[in-house]
Amino acid sequence: MNRTLTCALVLFATAALAQNATPKASVTRWPQDRVAAISLTFDDGINTDLDVVEPILAKHHLTGTFFVATAMGPWEKRKTEWKQLAQAGNELANHTVHHPCLLPQITPHSQDYTPEMMEAEIRDAAEDITQLSNSKRGLTFAYPCGNMSFGKPEDEVKNAALFARYVSEHSFAARAVGGGAIDADELNVLAVSDLGPTADKDFVALLQMGKPAFEGGRWGVYCFHGVGGDWLSITPEALDELATYLQRHREIWSATFGDVIRYIQERKAASIRIAESAADHLEVRLSWPMDKNIYDLPLTVKVELPSKWSRVSASGDGTRLEVKLSEQPNGSVVLVDVPPKTASLLISNAK
């Protein structure tokens, strides 16, 4: 009997401790605690971006990143349409002026480039794109042909360091090639890998490429060129089916390349702590060390409460915020999208 009584007291004490435990607060890996992230990126700034890709993305309420080579023709001839593309929420990004790379079949050939020439390629394209988009959010970059150096073979090692410097001076992140889905905690911000070549792949093959991201909580970056034309093309039907899949599976965060980088870097840099915990409210304090002009996305804060709160409200620096409340076996979990630079998040339980 004494043993039974002791076990009962231990159980009651454990339950009491659980009720009085300090709540836990964290930033979710992806916005709204989604399971993975996907970015649709399109290289070169070509006519099919405007004629085929844009209508498909708009149909499915998605956005993409368009890495533009500004001297390839479509950029200069169709600037009004590129500007409209950006105004619809798509990202215009840097792919140099003339698209020089080390592949022998592509001209101009970056083996013939001096450091001054390559710096101008990156700088001039950045200025042109920034001026058109009229944005101060910064630019991302994609290496032409995936090459991360230039010049003669004997200079490629030292020029790789110069290339990285030029990119970093005009971009806050860059996409490389290959490597597959990305673990956000192991991100190389100047060499973000893509999922691999997409040319001639149908929807089933494209979906298979994204599975490591979907199933592993990672970020998958698709790299496309032509869609229904131009070069290294896929069919419009393949892109449309992939976009349909992403529209239906909202547990996967589909966002531009730049916005995924923004969220990852904000999450990793932010500090978060419980400053006050009471029976009917708690205060979460946050700090945001990243440049507010570039890193301007809300962060989703997840708070695990020790007891079940039935009616929860939240405010950030005094402004009411939307909350998503779910009941868990050991308490309640609250998700709140907190605007950037918010210092104080107050969560209250209304009786």
Task: Please provide a brief summary of the model.
With 351 residues, the protein is of the alpha/beta class. The protein has helices spanning 2-20, 47-59, 74-77, 79-87, 115-133, 156-170, 203-216, 236-248, 257-269; strands at 24-27, 36-44, 65-68, 91-94, 140-142, 173-179, 192-194, 219-224, 252-254, 271-277, 281-287, 299-305, 312-316, 319-321, 323-328, 331-338, 344-349.
What structural keywords apply?
351 residues, alpha/beta, TIM Barrel, elongated
Element-level helix/strand string? HEEHEHHEHEHEEHEHEHEEEEEEEE
CATH architecture of the largest domain: Alpha-Beta Barrel
Structural class: alpha/beta
Can you give the helix content as a percent range? Answer: 25-40%
Give a count of the beta strands, DSSP E runs of length 2 or more.
17
Query: Residue ranges: pLDDT <50 for 5 or more in a row?
Result: 4-19
Classify the beta-strand content into a percent band.
Answer: 25-35%
